[in-house]
Amino acid sequence: MQTIFVQIKCQLGRAYAVADELVQNVEQVSEVHSTSGQYDLMIKCYLEEGTDIGHFVTEHIQTLPGIQDTFTLIAFKAFA
Q1: In sequence order, what are the residues at sequence separation of 6 or more whose Cβ sits closer than 8 angstroms to the Cβ of residue 1?
Q2: Residue in 1, 5, 24, 8 with CA at minimum distance from that of residue 74
Q3: Are 52 and 28 in contact (CB under 8 A)?
Q4: Predicted local distance difference test score (pLDDT) of residue 67
Q5: What is the pTM for the complete model shown?
Q6: Per residue in 50-62, pLDDT tens?
Q7: CA Rg value for the chain
Q8: In three state form, how does the secondary structure of the chain look?
């Protein structure tokens, strides 16, 4: 599994609707957090090895209604 985090800037007034859509309809999404600052939401996704991250984000995240912009972070290792 590969882990990515995607920060999402939503259209005004759409953050809760976008969060709901992500939780309900994108199976790779593990968590959705509301955040302060430049972006409205941060999501954690688990992708199967070999999944093209660019295609996943552009086809499954950026196309959702109410999303204005994204910023993707690739995680290398989780520490426990």
Answers
A1: 46, 47, 48, 49
A2: 5
A3: no
A4: 98
A5: 0.94
A6: 999 999 999 999 9
A7: 12
A8: CEEEEEEEEECCCCHHHHHHHHHHHCCCEEEEEECCCCCCEEEEEEECCCCCHHHHHHHHHCCCCCEEEEEEEECCCCCC
